[in-house]
């Protein structure tokens, strides 16, 4: 059977097993579509899997030069495995998130820098999934310039990949698939026309590579980022950092108000932000709050209450403004989980009449085994985009989490040496977190538990500022 006939037979079989569906669906990129391609079902049909791998190999892979094959997780992995065996080429596997144990690798398999890797994917709409894999492979020093795809939806994905120096070769385009299904009476001409009209009128959004998205933010000095900040607290924080030449935040995890105030007298001039956990202070009182605010004014730092609000909007509104702590009256900004949904931001946005307040949303965590997923992180960032005046930034670990240079990346879990404590807190070095996009770096026990907190604060401040200076000059190693 010639190639065209094999392709036609494959298209019809995909329709028969419900891998191609017609109706009303939403793609990963958020687009509404009258046709959906779901290749996950092919794992139950070995003959179809074999047909796809044979056709991809014959039409694309056989003519390419590459050292490794990597399937986009997770639907493309079975096809990538078959192609690896057929081509007798090494396969690499990209995890959607790095393990929190063992080697903590994001890319599994044996490879060397500058080797070539070919991407395998099932369907491309915007190309965002392919680019996520491309970016992670490139971070490991691999050369990634080619992708073989089963179906091109013809909605801009090919162009997005080309902008990021990836050439895409597809087995089928959506228009070719629709023609085969109409010609073989699998769908009506009316459905075919509807789908083609949709394809011609609806394009996926342009997708930047993560490196391109992050570069503007990471290369901009704090004073320039203050100019583009829409939240007043973010603007103040960037200005303080530029003025005091410090991006150090101290986490005062102490249970005595006197100990906290004494500590801040020693380290206040070296920090830009003080992070509190007010509910662990055993002798909390209004006098402590007044003295804390006086120290903030004296040493020019802001106050972050790490409350991690995570309840329904009405409850959070009360937790923020009422009760013993009356957080809204003294904290410049607070941390918030996005888990309850947008209502939590609506509540905080409407609770305080003082617009000089801010929120840091938890997009990622530094604790071992935490349950935050990449999809959760992306949804958190999308939720924040609706409240630009309220948002100070994100608590996160990676530069690619968000693009907006007017927002602050607050990164906790930093110590000079110790990799992990006995309760699952995983630490990074100061240099590493700055390289990973941190704007403000949180240090707790590394300073608080030291014999000389002021000396340690100065040490952290100098290392962090030096790393930041290298970053904005493009000299990070």
TrEMBL record:
Pathway(s) where this gene product acts: Pyrimidine metabolism; UMP biosynthesis via de novo pathway; UMP from orotate: step 2/2; Pyrimidine metabolism; UMP biosynthesis via de novo pathway; UMP from orotate: step 1/2
InterPro entries linked: Aldolase_TIM, OMPdecase, OMPdecase_AS, OMPdeCOase_dom, OPRT, Or_phspho_trans_dom, PRTase-like, PRTase_dom
Highest rank taxon of the organism: Eukaryota
Binding, substrate: 253, 275, 366, 425, 444-445
Catalytic residues identified in the record: 306 (for ompdecase activity), 308 (for ompdecase activity), 311 (for ompdecase activity)
EC number: 2.4.2.10, 4.1.1.23
Keywords, alphabetical: Decarboxylase, Glycosyltransferase, Lyase, Multifunctional enzyme, Pyrimidine biosynthesis, Transferase
Similarity section: In the C-terminal section; belongs to the OMP decarboxylase family.
Protein name, UniProt field: Uridine 5'-monophosphate synthase
Naturally occurring in which organism (per UniProt): Papilio xuthus
Phylogenetic lineage: Eukaryota, Metazoa, Ecdysozoa, Arthropoda, Hexapoda
């Amino acid at each position: 059977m010639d190639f065209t006939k094999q392709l036609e037979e494959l298209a019809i079989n995909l329709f028969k097993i419900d891998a191609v569906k017609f109706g009303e669906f939403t793609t990963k990129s958020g687009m509404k579509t009258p046709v959906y391609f779901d290749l996950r079902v092919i794992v139950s049909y070995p003959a179809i899997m074999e047909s796809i791998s044979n056709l991809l190999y014959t039409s694309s892979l056989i003519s390419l030069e590459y050292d490794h094959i990597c399937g986009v997780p997770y639907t493309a992995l079975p096809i990538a495995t078959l192609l690896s065996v057929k081509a007798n080429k090494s396969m690499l596997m990209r995890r959607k998130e790095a393990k929190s144990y063992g080697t903590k690798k994001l890319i599994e398999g044996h490879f060397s820098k500058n080797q070539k890797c070919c991407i395998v994917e099932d369907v491309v709409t915007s190309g965002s999934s392919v680019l996520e894999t491309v970016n992670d492979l490139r971070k490991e020093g691999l050369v990634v310039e080619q992708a073989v795809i089963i179906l091109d939806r013809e909605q801009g994905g090919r162009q997005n990949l080309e902008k990021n120096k990836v050439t895409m070769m597809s087995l089928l385009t959506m228009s070719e698939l629709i023609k085969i299904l109409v010609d073989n009476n699998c769908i009506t001409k009316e459905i075919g026309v509807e789908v083609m009209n949709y394809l011609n009128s609806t394009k996926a959004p342009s997708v930047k590579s993560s490196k391109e998205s992050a570069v503007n933010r990471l290369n901009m000095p704090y004073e320039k980022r203050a100019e583009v900040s829409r939240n007043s607290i973010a603007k103040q924080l960037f200005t303080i950092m530029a003025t005091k030449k410090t991006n150090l935040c101290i986490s005062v995890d102490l249970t005595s108000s006197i100990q906290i105030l004494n500590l801040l007298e020693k380290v206040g001039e070296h920090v830009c932000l003080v992070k509190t956990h007010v509910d662990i202070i055993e002798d909390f009182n209004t006098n402590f709050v007044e003295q804390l605010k006086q120290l903030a004014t004296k040493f020019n730092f802001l106050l972050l209450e790490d409350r991690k609000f995570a309840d329904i909007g009405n409850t959070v509104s009360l937790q923020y403004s009422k009760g013993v702590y009356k957080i809204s009256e003294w904290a410049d900004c607070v941390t918030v989980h996005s888990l309850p949904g947008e209502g939590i931001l609506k509540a905080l946005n409407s609770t305080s009449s003082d617009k000089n307040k801010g929120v840091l949303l938890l997009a990622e965590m530094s604790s071992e085994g935490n349950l935050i997923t990449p999809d959760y992180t992306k949804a958190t960032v999308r939720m924040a985009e609706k409240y630009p005046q309220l948002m100070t930034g994100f608590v996160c670990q990676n530069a690619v989490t968000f693009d907006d240079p007017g927002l602050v990346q607050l990164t906790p879990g930093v110590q000079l040496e110790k990799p992990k404590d006995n309760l699952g807190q995983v630490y990074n070095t100061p240099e590493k977190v700055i390289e990973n996009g941190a704007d403000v770096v949180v240090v707790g026990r590394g300073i608080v538990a030291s014999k000389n907190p002021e000396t340690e604060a100065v040490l952290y401040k100098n290392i962090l500022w030096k790393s930041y200076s290298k970053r904005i000059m493009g000299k990070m190693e």
